[in-house]
Amino acid sequence: MDQVDVTDRVWRRLLEVRGGTAELTGGEWSPGEQRALELYGPLARRDRGPLTVGQIGQSLDGRVATVADDARDISGPDGLAHLHRMRALSDGVIVGVKTALHDEPRLTVRLCEGPSPARIVIDPHGRLPNDAPIFHPDGTRRLVIQAVDQLRPDGVEVIRLAASDGRVEPADILAALQREGFHTLLVEGGGFTISRFIDAGLLDRLHIAIAPVLIGAGQQGITMPSPPDTLAEAMRPTTTAFSVGSDVVFDCELPR
Ligand SMILES: NC(=O)c1ccc[n+]([C@@H]2O[C@H](COP(=O)([O-])OP(=O)(O)OC[C@H]3O[C@@H](n4cnc5c(N)ncnc54)[C@H](OP(=O)(O)O)[C@@H]3O)[C@@H](O)[C@H]2O)c1
């Protein structure tokens, strides 16, 4: 498996592709830079239809947290840099309310050059407090998807959607965000939220970043609400593995 080499010049090209000022093809690249274009190119492009991508960082045994709920920094340093690159190439990043409550993520781009995406939290019952870091004003769009009337801080955009049994259809979420002008959306977690998008057939790609750590027990990453009974029925996406230093990223193309 070749190493991905995200040099300054290849990253600059990817940001230009994202901004519509350069094409993905053309130029002389080293094998590692070429791998970087293959891994990040689909997210950078804006000349195709809207794209929805999931990303999850997990252990060798598929966990995203210990039994005691320690979930911070499962990914190694290069896995984290990978996540920040994905954010920088996305227009908006979506998290479920449990991630927002538990991790208090900022969802900004800090480990590479590039713009921070809009921050979007799915909070059907209005559980996230108004002083959560996601809502802090910093010039970036902030949106909340909710199924209840709940006043939010100035500047936070509320998308009110209907829920059935407490669940909002991922298709309604995606349609509402696309009406708001979002082209490339990153579903960053947690596993519940990503799994609902996969189950609804709404993810175009899924990046699973595996860090070389064995946890042994604890929360699983992807847990589908309606898994298959037999392996013959299991989803087998077209998958390419990329070595990104400390972690290995499996880039899965999902059927839609
Ligand atoms: N390793 C990683 O890459 C990674 C990334 C992010 C988070 N995490 C970890 O994952 C854990 C949290 O993940 P999680 O899977 O438990 O929860 P989650 O996906 O963060 O949030 C789930 C909650 O979001 C709301 N939600 C999401 N989609 C919805 C939908 N379609 N309809 C209605 N409500 C929806 C629901 O809120 P209600 O409960 O109010 O109904 C649901 O219970 C944390 O420990 C965090 O550290 C790991």
Give the strand content: 15-25%
Main sheet strand line-up = 5-4-3-2-6-1-7-9-8
Model regions low in confidence, pLDDT < 50 over at least 5 residues: none
Pattern of helices and strands: HHEHEHEEEHEHEEE
How much helix is in the residues? 25-40%
Strand runs, count: 9
- Overall average residue pLDDT: 95
User: What would you report as the Rg, rounded to the nearest angstrom?
Assistant: 18 Å
Structural summary, described in words:
The structure is a single chain. The mean pLDDT is 95. The two termini are 28 Å apart. The protein has helices at 8-19, 31-44, 77-89, 97-103, 170-179, 191-199, and strands at 51-58, 92-96, 118-122, 142-146, 156-160, 184-189, 205-210, 238-243, 248-253. Helix 1 (8-19) packs parallel to helix 2 (31-44). By secondary structure, the chain is α/β, with parallel strands linked by helices. Helix content is 25%, strand content 20%. It folds into two domains: 1-48, no CATH class; 50-253, 3-Layer(aba) Sandwich (Dihydrofolate Reductase, subunit A). Bound molecules: NADP nicotinamide-adenine-dinucleotide phosphate. NADP nicotinamide-adenine-dinucleotide phosphate binds next to strand 1, strand 2, helix 4, strand 6 and helix 6.
